[in-house]
């Protein structure tokens, strides 16, 4: 994965976060406006887990699903494929989870929505949110830095998810697992592989969160149920 980006509210917020990152000890790289298509200037940094992230304030605005802002229709008429509503989250593999947690919570304003603890009480997975979503980014402990497990796209309903499964079969797309439900987040899910071998997810439902909620905790002895609530068994390929 090259990087994952987050939009901030305005240029003042971007400048403040840039200062905060440098004060925290992160090396910060500035990327000029226009270097990425339809995007303003970006601030890039590397998390202790080895992943690169970018922050930006300006992006070409296309509206929700490309609809008009005044008297919008319910949905565009020319949607194709799975018709994902938006990008939802990414799950990363890497080490140094405590340091990554500190960076995201103390500097970037995320909060812990859900976690997995081992028998010693050590956090081996952390699901972080910056909104009311189940999570915006998640990290699972892995000895190798900077790995991507999957990216996820949001669908609105279970029926949309089943239609996505039909399209996966119609196109002979390589499927990992699903349709099923997670225990973690309680979201409904399908995982599949694109032609480049990257794991993708389409996801609907999921718990809502607020920053003052206590984090939900799963334990590693229930990890099968936490990841695949119905089967309650880990898929070895899914762990790669």
Automatic annotation (TrEMBL):
SUPFAM superfamilies: Glyoxalase/Bleomycin resistance protein/Dihydroxybiphenyl dioxygenase. Residues 1-58, 86-205 form the VOC domain. The keyword Metal-binding applies. This is Metapyrocatechase. Its cofactor is Fe(2+). Homotetramer. InterPro entries: Catechol_2-3_dOase, Glyas_Bleomycin-R_OHBP_Dase, Glyas_Fos-R_dOase_dom, VOC_core, Xdiol_ring_cleave_dOase_1/2, XylE-like_N. It comes from uncultured organism. Signal peptide: none annotated. It holds the Pfam family Glyoxalase. It is an enzyme of class 1 (oxidoreductase). The keyword Iron applies.
